[in-house]
Specification:
The chain has one domain. It is globular, with a radius of gyration of 16 Å. It is 73% helix and 0% strand. Helix 2 packs across helix 3 and helix 4 packs antiparallel against helix 5. The chain has six helices and no strands. 30% of the residues are buried. With 135 residues, the chain is an all-alpha fold. It is a multi-pass membrane protein.
Length: 135
Amino acid sequence: MIKHTWVQTLLRVVLGVIFMAHGISKFQMGLVNVEGWFSSIGVPGFMAYVAAIIELVGGAMLILGLFTRVVSALFVVLMLGAIVTVKLSVGLLGNNETAGYELDLALMMISVYLLAEGPGSLSVDRFIFKKRSVQ
C-alpha cells in the first residue's frame, strides 16, 4: 500500500512537471509563434493557446493533486491529438528529422493510469474530497 501511494504520487508529480515545462516552453516561444506553427500543420491556431494553458495550469494542478482525474482526461485528449495530427505519420520512433510518438504515448498512458486510479492519498484531492484513494 505504501509503495503504491509513492508510485502514484511520483507518477502524478513527474507528469505534472513535464506538462508544466511544455506549457512554459510554449509561452517562452511566444504563443503567436506557436499559433502559426499549429496553423501550418492544419490545427486551428487558437488551439495553441488552449494547449499551452492546459499544459501549464494542468501541470501545476497535477503536481498538487488537484482535480487529478479531470486534468488527466484533458492530457489524454491533448496527447491523442498530438499523436494523430503531428506524430503518427513519422511512426513510433520517428525519423532523422522528427521524433516519433513514443513519448506522447507514454505520457498518455500515465494520464490514463491517473484517470483510472486517481491522485493517491498524498494529494489535495484527498483532503478536499475527504475520500480514501483506492489502493
